[in-house]
Here is the input.
Amino acid sequence: MDRLSSAMNRRTLLIAAIASAITARRDAQSHTIQPAPINGFELPEPKALQASSLRTHARVPFSSRDLGGRWSFVFFGFTHCPDVCPTTLAELRRVRAAIGAARDTAPNRVLFVTIDPVRDTDARLAEYIARFGPGVTALNGSANAIKTFADQFRVKYEIAGNGKATNGSYLFDHTASVSLVGPDARLYAVFTLPLRTQAVANDVLRIHAKHRADLCPNVSGQHDTLTCIAKTV
Here is the structure.
């Protein structure tokens, strides 16, 4: 009886060990195929956005319709920004180059939204963004229009120090992040700074692949003029 019980116990332990090994292997495989967390966060449900009373640096009105059409990196800043803004725009240029090198590229651009409409004239914005290559559009507007747009991204900003400008010389404290807006004018992800070039490019390509069938089944244009052609019903 003791021998039988011992044999049964060994058999039970062996079965349990095999089951545990199989489960561990499945868990490892499952873990392997899961995408790594992005450098920021991806919204579980994309958020619809609206744009009104804005204009580009070329003085062309910019509406909600113009917000879509391709993937957009939206960044709020100002041309007198000494470090974060130029560094981030330079990083975005590298991210866009990495995306462009992919076989299945995702049409994209950069939207630089000024938070300093008093000093950032359209001419100054045009000169500023030219330093960061093609595919960058600056957006301007009234202080109220810019704040309404920024609030949708939960971007906050204020004049640094005592909150008052002195002789036209001042800086801003502002939210430092880059938002990813889809071809359907919805917010899909927010990347924190500093940007990791290849990691961000891979995240955008992954998000693009996941939604391509509905948002961008075909593209038109070349290089920096690539635009998504939405699926027709």
The chain has a mean pLDDT of 85. The chain has two domains: 1-34, 40-229.
